[in-house]
Amino acid sequence: MLEQETPNIASMPTLSSPGLLVMDVDSTLIDEEVIDELGAAAGVGEQIASVTARAMNGELDFREALRARVELLEGLPTSIFDEVYRRVHFTHGALDLIDALHGHGWKVGVVSGGFHEVVDRLAADAKLDYWIANRLEAVDGKLTGRVRGDIVTKDAKLESLRTWAAQMGIDMAQTVAVGDGANDLPMIHAAGLGVAFCAKPKVRAEAPNRLDERDLTKILDFLR
């Protein structure tokens, strides 16, 4: 069910004009949390999953929480990404949503606190137009426990939404942002339609719209 605090369908983005949808990856585009899958492979799954849940609910600084979790992955072979990629699943309706939007001249991007090593493959499978994620450092085929470059934070997610909309030459009113974690809230509030998707309690409480059914095609109901 999709709940809307201010039911004004006329003000929503519309499929009649080109637009942009940006979504989170873990627990949104896909059912799983990649960092948790990596943690399970490293034998520290419960420890990492606990930190993930607290970070997504806004209880921890995301940047520091990510670094702490990545440190626990030190020594994993980079071949682990092949295994994790085979274990993740697109959320029900994700590919249908993307195809439908492309059919109306829209573009679709993802902004992920996860990792390019998996997100790049998902982006190719889903035929995404834009994507950003973190990169893990590796030496001699093993993870070092460090992140390469800048970490994708809530500010980076918001900036990506704005930058891609500007590149398309569309107004922010023609954008949609979908996510489940606290670091998705800035882009959810900035978009023409922002949706908390099967989200953590803090996100459900603060987002203007909520979808509690794991079917991403329901987003289309607001874009007719």
Could you say how many structural domains there are in total? 1
Structural class: alpha/beta
- CATH topology name, in short, is Rossmann fold
Strand content: 15-25%
CATH architecture: 3-Layer(aba) Sandwich
Shape: globular
Amino- and carboxy-terminal Cα gap: 17 Å
Biggest beta-sheet profile: 8 strands, mixed
Give the low-confidence spans: 6-10
User: In angstroms, what is the radius of gyration?
Assistant: 17 Å
Annotated CATH homologous superfamily: HAD superfamily/HAD-like
* Main sheet strand line-up: 1-8-7-6-2-3-4-5
How many helical elements? 9
The percent range for helix content is 25-40%
- Quantity of strands, as a count: 8
Overall pLDDT score? 93
The helix/strand series, from N terminus to C terminus, equals EEHHHHHEHEEHEHEHE
Short description:
Pathway: Amino-acid biosynthesis; L-serine biosynthesis; L-serine from 3-phospho-D-glycerate: step 3/3. The chain is an alpha/beta fold and 224 residues long.
